[in-house]
């Protein structure tokens, strides 16, 4: 985009952030914000640890590994790709493989970085990285508190699950739509 299309672009001014809470997973603060027109307000800001999500597809790229779990914040059961926090000093691909194994009992092969996104860019610094793997080895049962069910789901069915509201998380939607695009292209692209 060029400045002649949006000539009045200007940044918001932050006059400071006051820390409200600090935990191992999230820091909550209140930012004092001033808009370009002089209006001021305060806004909560959430700064979160980096997360990884593991999109695990079978060797042919026809099925995606999903977990069924309850999310108390939205009080809804949904199907998700496995994922979680990156430990300090941990490599993203290693974290994605670890989270997938803990949550599903399947160890993904060669996770490759796909993309990074911010799920709540207006309120949170919550970077989430998505890794894609083709193929996985069953190595045991998932940890008891991680998932109610673990299932390999055909990509077309997973896409229909999004439309029915059975998949609501952004990372899972991105992962499913990535797999749909791969199928439409007729080949697996190495992320």
From TrEMBL:
Chain ranges of the Nudix hydrolase domain: 47-175
Keywords: Hydrolase, Magnesium
Pfam families: NUDIX
GO molecular function per UniProt: hydrolase activity
Cofactor(s) required for function per UniProt: Mg(2+)
Family: Belongs to the Nudix hydrolase family.
Classification via PANTHER family: GDP-MANNOSE MANNOSYL HYDROLASE
Protein name per the record: NUDIX hydrolase
């Amino acid at each position: 985009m060029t400045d002649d299309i949006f000539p009045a672009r200007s940044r918001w001014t932050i006059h400071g952030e006051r820390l409200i809470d600090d935990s191992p997973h999230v820091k909550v603060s209140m930012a004092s914000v001033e808009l370009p027109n002089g209006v001021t307000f305060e806004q909560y800001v959430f700064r979160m640890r980096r997360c990884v999500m593991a999109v695990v597809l079978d060797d042919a790229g026809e099925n995606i590994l999903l977990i069924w779990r309850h999310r108390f914040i939205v009080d809804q059961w949904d199907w998700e790709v496995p994922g979680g926090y990156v430990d300090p000093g941990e490599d993203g691909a290693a974290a994605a493989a670890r989270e997938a194994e803990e949550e599903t009992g399947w160890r993904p092969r060669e996770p490759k970085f796909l993309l990074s996104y911010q799920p709540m860019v207006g309120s949170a610094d919550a970077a989430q990285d998505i890794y894609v793997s083709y193929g996985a080895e069953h190595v045991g049962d998932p940890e008891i508190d991680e998932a109610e069910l673990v299932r390999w789901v055909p990509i077309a069915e997973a896409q229909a699950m999004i439309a029915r509201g059975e998949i609501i998380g952004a990372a899972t939607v991105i992962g499913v739509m990535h797999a749909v695009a791969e199928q439409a292209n007729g080949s697996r692209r190495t992320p």
